[in-house]
Design a protein that fits this description.
The protein starts with 7 loop residues before the first helix and ends with a helix. It folds into two domains: 107 residues, Rna Polymerase Sigma Factor, Chain: A, CATH 1.10.1740.10; 75 residues, Winged helix-like DNA-binding domain superfamily/Winged helix DNA-binding domain (Arc Repressor Mutant, subunit A, Orthogonal Bundle), CATH 1.10.10. The chain has nine helices and no strands. Helix 3 packs antiparallel against helix 4 and helix 4 packs across helix 5. The relative contact order is 0.17. The N terminus is likely disordered. It has 204 residues and is an all-alpha fold.
């Protein structure tokens, strides 16, 4: 199973204008077949969204085993609730993404991983969106650096930069405040940049 990689510069720069990894169009005819209970239609939907759901779950939960559980639970809920999706101007991928995010955060809360959050003192570093060293844009380095961040912090970084959620939306999803999201983003970005710099020096 492949894990989507995102350049370090994309994680450390504003999310505005970036398309969500879930932005996959699904034909209405396929949705109609899925609503009718057609197994082949669900298989097609699964194949379309397996990679973005698993990637998001890995970034938030930090473990492939946990991500596999989140993927399974997400798809089971999509199957059970697809009759509730009526569109009305909202894309199917956005609806499915919301289920995936909720499942990943629920897994995070169950594991009490938020005890490892970076400290919050209410002060935002002015350079929170500074770019990493050029050599640190390697995807493997980014993945190793992300793995060293607390799960909640890593989740904020991914939801904000890769999926384009606002601080208000992240705060609501994580049952916290927008200030919590902002602080985790600022401190997580600074920590991530430092980790990337250390790794670059180790390989110099």
């Amino acid at each position: 199973m492949l894990i989507e990689t995102v350049p370090a510069a994309a994680i450390l720069t504003p999310a505005s204008g970036r398309a969500s990894s879930f932005a996959i169009e699904v034909p209405e005819a396929l949705l109609a077949r899925a609503r009718a209970g057609e197994h082949a239609a669900f298989e097609q939907i699964y194949r379309r969204f397996e990679r973005p759901v698993f990637t998001l779950a890995v970034r938030i939960c930090g473990e492939r085993e946990a991500a596999a559980d989140v993927l399974q639970e997400t798809m089971l809920k999509v199957i059970a609730r697809i009759g509730d999706f009526r569109g009305r101007g909202s894309p199917f991928w956005g609806w499915l993404r919301q289920i995936a995010v909720n499942e990943a955060l629920m897994h995070l809360r169950r594991g009490r991983r938020q005890a490892g959050e970076l400290p919050v003192d209410g002060h935002e570093p002015a350079d929170e969106q500074a770019l990493p060293p050029p050599a640190a844009a390697d995807a493997a380095q980014l993945q190793r650096a992300l793995a060293q961040l607390p799960a909640a912090t890593r989740g904020v970084l991914w939801l904000y930069h890769a999926e384009g959620y606002t601080h208000e939306e992240i705060g609501e999803l994580m049952q916290r405040t927008p200030s919590f999201s902002k602080s985790q983003l600022a401190r997580g970005t600074r920590r991530l940049r430092a980790l990337l710099q250390i790794e670059e020096n180790d390989h110099a």
